[in-house]
């Protein structure tokens, strides 16, 4: 593999062997490592992307989970006093997230995660 060759060449320049050890302890040898390891670099499959252009440097480049929930037509929100707020209303959920509680448990988790990051 080409990537492995690069690592072996770099190590060889410093007189390091990635396959042979100077000791006889098998457990510390890199060739003895077992198990599945996550690849450092992975070629994406079914990758989608889009080019974003913006002029406002303070505008966020991506929506947070809370922004997505707020834009969702199916999100029914309830304020802490129990009154219902539809997502189509003018209430900005991201500005009033302490007052609005999503009725969907998954949405509630996203709101709590968003609040903990603030």
Shape, principal axes of CA atoms: elongated
Q: In what range is the share of β-strand residues?
A: 5-15%
N- to C-terminal separation? 45 Å
The H-and-E topology, N to C, reads as HHEEEH
GO biological process, one term: pseudouridine synthesis
Region (Disordered): 79-118
Biased composition (Polar residues): 79-94
GO molecular function, one term: RNA binding
Summary of the model, kept short:
The protein is α+β, with helices and mostly antiparallel strands. The protein has 3 helices and 3 strands. The protein has a 3-stranded antiparallel sheet with strand order 2-1-3.
Topology (SSEs and partners):
Layout: H1 2-13, H2 65-71, E1 76-79, E2 84-86, E3 100-102, H3 105-117
Describe the protein:
This protein has a domain at 65-117. 27% of the residues lie in helices and 8% in strands. It has helices spanning 2-13, 65-71, 105-117, and strands spanning 76-79, 84-86, 100-102. Strands 2-1-3 form a three-stranded antiparallel sheet. A hairpin with a 4-residue loop joins strand 1 (76-79) and strand 2 (84-86). The chain is elongated, with a radius of gyration of 26 Å. One of its GO terms (biological process) is pseudouridine synthesis.
Keywords:
3 helices; PsdUridine_synth_TruD; alpha+beta; three-stranded antiparallel beta sheet; single chain; pseudouridine synthase activity; 118 residues
